[in-house]
Amino acid sequence: MSTLDSKIPKGPLADKWTQHKNDINLVNPANKRNIDIIVVGTGLAGGSAAATLAELGYNVKTFCYQDSPRRAHSIAAQGGINAAKNYQGDGDSNYRLFYDTVKGGDYRSREANVYRLAEVSANIIDQCVAQGVPFAREYGGYLDNRSFGGVLVSRTFYAKGQTGQQLLLGAYSAMNRQINRGKITPYNRHEMLDLVIVDGKARGIIARNLVTGEIERHSAHAVVIASGGYGNVFYLSTNAMGSNVTASWKIHKRGAYFANPCYTQIHPTCIPVSGDHQSKLTLMSESLRNDGRIWVPKTKEDAEAIRQGKKKPKDLSETERDYYLERRYPSFGNLVPRDVASRAAKERCDAGYGVNKTGQAVFLDFASAIERYGKEQAAIHGNHNPSKEEITKLGKKVIEDKYGNLFQMYEKIVDENPYETPMMIYPAVHYTMGGVWVDYNLQSTIPGCYVTGEANFSDHGANRLGASALMQGLADGYFVLPYTIGDYLSKDIKTGKIPTDTKEFDEAENKVRELLEKLINNKGTHSVDHFHKKLGHIMWNKCGMARNAEDLKSAMSEIRALREEFWKDVKIPGGMNEMNAELEKATRVADFLELGELFAKDALDRNESCGGHFREEYQTEEGEALRDDENFMYVAAWEYTGDPGNEILHKEELEYENIEVKSRSYK
Amino acid sequence: MKLTLKIWRQKNATTKGELKTYPIDGVEGDMSFLEMLDVLNEGLINKGEEPVVFDHDCREGICGSCSLQINGEPHGPDRLVTTCQLHMRMFNDGDTIVIEPFRAKAFPVIKDLVVDRSAFDRIQQAGGYISVNTSGNTVDANTIPVNKHDADESFNAATCIGCGACVAACKNASAMLFTSAKVSQFALLPQGRIEATERVLNMVAQMDKEGFGNCSNTGACEIECPKGISLENIARMNREYLSASLKG
Q1: Looking at the partner chain, which of B31, B55, B62 has a beta carbon nearest the beta carbon of A277?
Q2: Residues A558-598 pLDDT 10s
Q3: Taking the CA atoms of chain B, what radius of gyration do you get in angstroms?
Q4: Touching check for B116 and chain A: CB below 8 Å?
Q5: DSSP class of residue A277?
Q6: What residues have CB less than 8 Å from A150, skipping those under 6 apart?
Q7: Would you say B199 and B128 are in contact if contact means Cβ atoms under 8 Å apart?
Q8: Fewer C-beta within 10 Å: chain B N or C terminus?
Q9: What is the pLDDT of residue A170?
Q10: What is the CA radius of gyration of chain A?
């Protein structure tokens, strides 16, 4: 085991980033024209980085598996983006955003990174508005804000329930400007299948053209991985069908350490599973918890009657309902952080109070909000004695303005009208805080290989607060990486073009070919999905919202066995040299089958509960997560050894100099 | 339910395609249309046949990947949904469903139900942006107040997901609704006015170059658009185009 150097600059917390920017080397504009950069992934982190690097003058190549950069899964983010603007005058500041994020992450993130994130957050909003991102506004024409979980201020900027879409289209438009100038060459429908290392430095990638099947070599002076998270290791998640760990896992196998794989966010408000055919889960934005109240019946008899359809939620009076978040956490109520809300829902459902057919759902109820807004609107319109119908009508309009698209989505999927009856929701896998280990400069343990956005581990600790993923993706891409990568590239101005006809590229390409041929020629009996579903089942049952040592050990051996079975028995129709969706899935699932085992190992190794990682053996009497700061206040960074069950642990000890580490309470 | 599917199969861009018939059983109302196709594909793979290829990703109606002409309508019979959000409860036991790719000269078929929509990207590259550097050295966001109505209209136009249903619905395969949505988003904002003239001229020129047809105001695009993008955007683009042409 070695100690990892996080390269955090010296000096007071608030000055570190400014000082660092002053200290690092720059590349002059003429030299930038001779330097190539590959960006894998075109979501918020990759798209913003590609646009900014191209604007600075570098030659950028982008890669995405989708048919257009605009389709990256950042597009599905709903609720909003945080920024310490303090437009509401409610006491927000860089420090408060920093503090909330470190506390929200259960004191398992790196102070200096989080402070930098808070520091650049305000710039993101300025940048996006200048780009024409149509954020929600108040009648005076100024930007509107709302609240998200785990904080006591309103710092979230939003565009209805489609904030991710609007921000991604902003980054995509910035990319388009550079594509038009010839500074970005986009390789869409391409998948990175290996990293090429020359003399210890990342110098290119091997990618497969998903239309023709051709294996291509691409060289560059640096490679940026911005390929998102690995939630699909659970099969069912809120991720897109194609979201995968492959780019991150390939660089891991080439020497990049993988940090905290067990830190997964299970989002409390998703539409429950409806049957075995289910292919993905749909999120209902956390912003709904601004106005929705979460409850289950107080008695098991009522819960049973609701499950059987004998009673409707409206039949239960206020006193017959258990608003369990408001009861357990009076100061944060329905706006506790995601990990806390998810566990509380699981606790109630496990205890027999769940409300849908499967018993795996709780209510998210808007009736109180509709009434409150209705009365307010009536008063604004001078109606001081409104009827119940008038109140309901006005209140529904306000809710529709705020969350219209989410309500419509719910109705289309579930076939129930959430304006009339409470939504039914249940936690689902959503985001992965773990990822490739990076230092303060966002560089992995492979020189020249940078990792940004959800793909890295850096800013959210053991739990991410709502509306912080968009903030991190854009912060990394627009404002952090463009500086830090320049420092590295300043030593490369005389290198010249990296040739691709070298033994390193030969070796990497041959490896990719062998992998694909092996899969195609396997001719087994089961589809890729068959194995992926089995993996998801193991992950959800044994590495999900609650974990214990015994289950984690058996998960490791079950995943290992499943991986062996996959390589013996997977069946992929079609050929290599054509569009082949099954082959694409197979390469991704093969990597998930390795990551899954490391995930379980990491969870087993961490003998404490923190954030999204809840070990049943380590909890308070009230069922809250119990950290062990003395023994586990570190980042677990794993080194690949050829066997995911036997990787080598490296620790980055976390130091808190600006924040008092205490037990996290939202009561 | 039991259904009969007639699906367009085409090996690649250069070979001819044809409709093939597939019976399917055990379809449930709670399945999405794409989950129904997953079930079909699982069966085909188990039989050793090649599964049907179709574009899809987020499966929550926002990425714009999924397409499909279902019984002659882009994204099928329901309104304001993409194919991934279309649920099988919209169909009845015994139905025959014809599934084809989006048809347009500018959207060539790649394989089966997958088409090439990169023409849309090139229209955006021609001017679908505001030329601001991403350095962060811009003015404070609240120094540019925007009338709420304009901001909301701009947002509504910006919700286009670029799926191409408007083109597939149009008898002329026109991309006016798509192009006008982006032109409108920026035309309605003070930040976007500065380059409004060049933007509309360049984007329309690229749209024509890609081989999309003309708009003849039938309005099918608005009806089939899964995001409800309004025809008013086309009217706005026409005004913008006219005034830009006079200036230019």
Answers
A1: B31
A2: 999 999 999 999 999 999 999 999 999 999 999 999 999 99
A3: 20
A4: yes
A5: T
A6: A100, A103, A104, A332, A335, A336, A337, A338, A465, A466, A666
A7: yes
A8: C
A9: 98
A10: 25
User: Is A470 in contact with A163 (CB distance < 8 Å)?
Assistant: yes
Query: Does the CA dihedral A375-A377-A382-A388 come out positive or negative?
Result: negative
Write the CB contacts of A92 (distance below 8 Å, at least 6 apart in sequence).
Answer: A84, A85, A86, A153, A155
Residue with tokens 């500041």: A93
A331 Cβ contact partners less than 8 Å away, ≥ 6 residues apart: A666, A667
Chain A residue nearest residue B163, CA to CA = A71
Domains along the sequence of chain B with CATH = 3-111 (3.10.20.30), 118-247 (1.10.1060.10)
pTM of the entire structure?
Answer: 0.97
Residue A1, pLDDT > 60, answer: no
pLDDT in tens, B11-56: 999 999 999 999 999 999 999 999 999 999 999 999 999 999 999 9
- C-alpha torsion sign, points A530, A533, A535, A541: negative
pLDDT tens digits along A269-306: 999 998 889 999 999 998 899 999 999 999 999 999 99
Instruction: Read off the tokens for A342.
Output: 């998810």
CA-to-CA distance for B155 and B149, rounded, in angstroms? Answer: 10
A206 bridge partner residues: A194, A217
Beta strand pairing call for A59-63 and B96-100: unpaired
Cβ within 8 Å of residue A282, ≥6 positions away = A238, A270, A271, A409, A413, B59, B60
Residue B31 to residue B21: CA distance in whole angstroms: 21
Position A552, amino acid: L
Q: Average pLDDT in the A197-226 region?
A: 98
Q: Hey, are the CB atoms on B142 and A143 less than 8 Å from each other?
A: yes
What single DSSP character describes residue A465?
P
Task: Give which of A418, A468, A465 is closest to A271, Cα–Cα.
Answer: A418
Of the candidates A68, A130, A211, the beta carbon closest to that of B138 is on A130
Would you state the pLDDT for residue A2?
A: 56
Any B CB within 8 A of A162 CB: yes
A167 touches chain B (CB under 8 A): no
* Beta strand A190-198 pairing with A201-209: antiparallel
Q: Are residues B61 and A409, on separate chains, in Cβ contact within 8 Å?
A: yes
